[in-house]
Amino acid sequence: MLLIPLLAILVACTGCQERTTGDFFAVDFKPDAPLRYKMISERTVDISLGMEDGDAKKSTQSITERLEMVIAYKPQGKFDPYAANTIQATCESARVTRTSIGGRASPSDAVNSLAGKSYTFEITPTGRIINYDDLDRVLKELGDKAFATTSQRQGSIKNPDMTSDFVAIQWHLWDSVAAIKNPLKGLKIGQTWTAIQSIPFPAPIPPDSPMPAVRKTTYKLDEITVTDQTERIASVSSTYQLDKGPLAHWSTPYTKRFQMKGLFGFLRNYKFLSIEGSGNSKYNINTGHLESDRQEFSLKVDANFLMPLKGTTPTIIVKQTIAVELLD
User: Fold this and answer.
1) Cβ contacts of residue 144 below 8 Å, gap of 6+?
2) Highest mean pLDDT among 64-78, 194-208, 297-311
3) What is the pLDDT averaged over residues 3-25?
4) CA-to-CA separations, 261 to 12, 78, 174, in angstroms, rounded
5) Residues 31, 74: contact at Cβ < 8 Å?
6) Cα–Cα distance between 112 and 124 in angstroms, integer?
């Protein structure tokens, strides 16, 4: 039972501060029982060329992408529930499948190389990451593996990759807890809070690019149910809107300029117009474990061709799903 002892020490430490009036949310790990999560990020990308007086079906190209990972988390050394801890993550498996335009085979995705790798990060008792050094190292390694060829004539050519999906899942995995304002006060049913998060997107992010597309996620504690084992499960809903940031931490995976392989290599000047969707996560208050998270949203984006084509106005519609499930 994590909740009662943690509340006791936190209330004692706050002295004359306001007492906790709601449920306290913390993130817990055990050295002898790693938390294993199945993580999926998948999307359908429809690219409409907007050809005037043309056939709408013929002027729309579609791509599907899916990343599935299993990552296990455990603390390094003894876990202290009242202090920051270093967590080791081991990617047990990672597989990307992609259907490219025209049904052509796609080269192996850089994120596939994450399988078998380990990395660490430091996290607070409420799930906020405070040290990204090793995460940035892994991110740069993935970025380096995304390049197909480098030559004096062509320069650097980058294959499609789902690195931004890995970032969107790992960076924000515990945000439904970590973003709670004034966590010592606890949460009541109906209470809301917000987090600024990156949006996974199939287009490349050059090394001199400003911050990628971001969203403001609004969380709401909808209800708390009690299982047969007397465990209290919080249901937290989420809704999204576009935002300008800034993100708490941002690092580009690519260290050199490049030309993107495929249709995205001919598109520029992305303008994010709207995001619509919602999500729900289940959090076990007693154990301090995120048990599941599912997000579904649609993103509308305008773009320009590298070489402007008369009568064309490219529009991109991304239908995205992110799902996380605790396996143990």
Assistant:
1) 255
2) 64-78
3) 51
4) 58, 46, 34
5) yes
6) 29
